[in-house]
Write a structure and sequence with these properties.
Distance between the termini: 54 Å
Mean pLDDT: 83
Oligomer: single chain
Structural class: mainly alpha
Strand content: under 5%
Helix content: 55-70%
Number of helices: 3
Length: about 100
């Protein structure tokens, strides 16, 4: 006999793309640990970016192509933002560890 345990996604779930805002998929995007949270968000945006890039190659209409370009830019901005935050966390940790 197996038991399936799930939990409801947080009210401010960062990843409604995979959880559909209903079931927490344990992606780590809402983690209390900043390093885990930002690493997970970078991975999420990279997955979303790959998906949008693949779909944008087959876009026929200009408006659809423009929407994909906006999505691509948005995901790239989020990746850069969270990578900068991770570097900042690493710098803070290095300062705390230095004698």
């Amino acid at each position: 006999m197996s038991i399936f345990v799930d939990s409801i996604a947080n009210k401010g779930c960062y990843n409604p793309f995979e959880s559909y805002g209903m079931i927490c998929v344990r992606c780590g995007c809402c983690s209390e640990d900043e390093k885990v949270r930002y690493t997970s968000r970078i991975a999420l945006h990279k997955r979303l970016l790959q998906d949008v890039l693949a779909k944008s190659r087959t876009a026929v209409h200009d408006i659809v192509r423009r929407n994909f370009e906006i999505d691509i830019a948005w995901n790239r901005e989020r990746i850069a933002e969270y990578e900068a935050k991770l570097k900042e966390i690493d710098r803070e940790n290095a300062v705390l560890k230095s004698p």
